[in-house]
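User: Hey, my collaborator sent me this sequence without any context and asked if I could get a structure. I don't really work with proteins. Can you help?
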Amino acid sequence: MSANLPNSLRIGAILLLGLAASAATGCGEASSGELREWQPSDHQLPEGYQEPEGGAVTEVGAGEALYVMHCSGCHGRSGLGDGTQAPPMARVSSLVDPAVQARSDEELARIVAQGQGGFMPAFGEQLAPTGIAAIVRHLRTLPRPGAAADAPQ
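Assistant: No problem. I've predicted the 3D structure and written it out in structure-token form, which is a compact way to encode the shape of the chain:
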């Protein structure tokens, strides 16, 4: 009977069986379906990333790595809003702006998790709360333009 089936139906049936087998096995990956905290060992560090002194990726280093991976494309490496991957016509916030820095950690974490203004995507599905908190802590370390010049001598 299978000899009477057109080739397109045979190919479709084979593809369907292959897809069903992949779904049943999870493509060889065990998954509990729960969000797992990102670990520096999960991915290659971004190009140009410098590990902290001592060679260990610390919590501060993890916050910087997460920022570079998820935020710097739009906000820029220094947080000035000059990233090369921002959507055209989008006004990307400078994260070193005093108004942004005046926001609470909780408010910044909410913005990272839920997105803002239609252009900034939500990262709450991709990052666990501890990863978002690490990004917020990293934002607090970004150098402010003119801060060194304003410092008392």
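In plain terms: The CA atoms of residues 14 and 105 lie 53 Å apart. You can pass these tokens on to your collaborator as they are.
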